[in-house]
Design a protein that fits this description.
By secondary structure, this protein is of the alpha/beta class. Strands 5-13-12-11-10-6-7 form a seven-stranded mixed sheet, sandwiched between helices.
Amino acid sequence: MYKQNTKDNMPETGPDWVMPLRTGNGPRYLQIVRMIAHAVESGALQAGDQIPTQRALAQRLDVDLTTVTRAYAKAREQGLVSATTGRGSFIASQPLHAQSSFTDLGMNVPPTPSWLHTSLSQGLDQLQRAQGMRQLSLYEPAALQTQLLQAGRQWLAAALPELASQQPMLLAAGTQTALCAILLSRCQRGDAVLCDHLTYPGFILAARSLGLRIVTVASDAQGMRPDALDEAQRASGARLLYLNPTLHNPTTLTMSAGRRQEIASLLEQRQLTLVEDDPYRPLLPDAPPPVTAYTQGRRSFYLASLSKTVWPGLRCSFVLLPDQATADAVQDCLRATGMGASPLLAGLTAQWIASGQALRIASEIQRESQLRQALARELLPAAAQAHSHGLHVWLPLPAHWPQQIFSHALQERGVGVATAQAFASTEHSPDSVRISLGAADSLAQLRPALEQIATLWHAGQTWGTRRPLV
């Protein structure tokens, strides 16, 4: 909750609900509106709470004052806040649901089964009875860790039957945590790391935060090109490669088995370390074996998050490592940067996997994803790229639509998407957007959002001579 204080009504650290604005997430003023709305929905802000002055929030977010002024005006228009001359701005006594007319398809999350809340309630109750509060209150309860790793091996057995039972395994509180720990343990500041031109923003952020040099590798219709990888490695001296070869984020591409074998062979020749991020595999019934299978686990890290196929709230990612010494080094880095995964969530994860509930949830997500992809094929332009089982769509834009202008115009129409800029490992990115189909509450909410995207995609043909209607 925001409290009045000195220094222009804004504490030095700022209210807990104020988060940094992100490039590629649409106009800044609308990000601020969504930030306020989320704080209301989560309970961080309640009716009557005072929010920072426009000047204070502008300083906190490092934006110009007009951006915040526009955001507050939009928030008042949506019924989120009210303003009193001389007193400031406050959360409205009966704030409207700001997202009721806004569908944010920018975050890649799975559709939530309607019965998940019941499973969650029952699962937590069973976990408390089985483990007891004392075990769940420990940082790393040994018995629970053992159960969880057994569950992880069971979860990975479909993708890597032999390696899942033989290789060392760790649990991380999400793939982002695992990526940071792996890079921290394997790289020195200034080292080069290899990845696709468009890739997971979390990897880009982690690499840049650790002072690593990101070197991009060219791709074709099958994914990363082996010849381009060889050339980039020779030129940069890089020792690590990051790949997301199945339902690639953001382009939706799934690398062929033959291309995976070629990449694995080159990794062996060049003694490159592989970090394979594979969060979407359980959604695909016919996915080729992971690249890690072709490397036989040598110098390979295999990351399998449950956020995209079971529930993001679990914050659980299994990490398969090449050897015990490497596992120990990564574990030290995990402990240096956090206290590990929550025993409560870890226990729930182990319970859901062991009981088969995780697979039932994944099957329901797979079914719903197919329905949403069918709707997207019906409504979106033919240029859209997607897999029939995937969570997202990649939409190249016509020449008359720069990605930021398109995103801005779409935001004004009540729909959010992620622009290619958010995934670019260099300054340049194609004019394209990623549409996350699982982010809508239902097919009924998704349909008008996709219709808005399609309508806008076809509009503005004279861009360059006049501004598209926004």
